[in-house]
């Protein structure tokens, strides 16, 4: 399997809140990950406040576009707690301790983990959820869908959307 480390790291950055640091990295992201050019070019020409407002509209108002992978599998149930423990266990087994401000199933964190370790198990295990998110982002008409398109293109074929 080819290494998609640069793509995963770039996608992780694209799926986090678009602050000034993100904007400063746009030229590097454009060159490093051609698969993300559609989104990066959109981000480069969109005024910062508009891009930030769009991010909040897409990802922060409803779970329909949740960036938390266990939500797609478990929803808001008690099972989700065990799923979150599993994410931490996978990180720990790779010699990393999850210390982020977000939950360990936050897609940018999972992408960064895959980038650093080459371990795509968590992405593959949650492929159905990634496909649902990709489909909903596409239907919503957001440029963020192209980021999910690029990530999903690197993973084995989905077994079926739940």
From TrEMBL:
It comes from the Bacteria. The keyword Transport does not apply. Keywords: Nitrate assimilation. Gene3D superfamilies: TorD-like. The keyword Amino-acid biosynthesis does not apply. SUPFAM superfamilies: TorD-like (SSF89155). NCBIfam families: narJ. This is Nitrate reductase molybdenum cofactor assembly chaperone. The gene is narJ.
């Amino acid at each position: 399997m080819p290494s998609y480390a640069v793509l995963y790291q770039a996608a992780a950055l694209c799926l986090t809140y678009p602050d000034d640091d993100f904007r400063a990295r746009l030229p590097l992201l454009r060159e490093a990950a051609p698969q993300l050019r559609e989104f990066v070019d959109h981000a480069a020409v969109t005024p910062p406040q508009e891009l930030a407002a769009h991010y909040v509209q897409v990802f922060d108002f409803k779970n329909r576009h949740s960036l938390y992978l266990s939500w797609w599998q478990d929803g808001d149930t008690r099972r989700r707690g065990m799923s979150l423990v599993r994410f931490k266990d996978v990180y720990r087994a790779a010699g990393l301790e999850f210390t982020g401000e977000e939950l360990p199933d936050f897609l940018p964190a999972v992408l960064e983990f895959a980038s650093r370790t080459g371990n795509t198990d968590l992405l593959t295990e949650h492929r159905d959820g990634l496909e649902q998110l990709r489909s909903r982002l596409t239907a919503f008409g957001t440029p963020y869908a192209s980021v999910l398109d690029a990530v999903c293109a690197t993973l084995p074929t989905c077994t079926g959307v739940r």
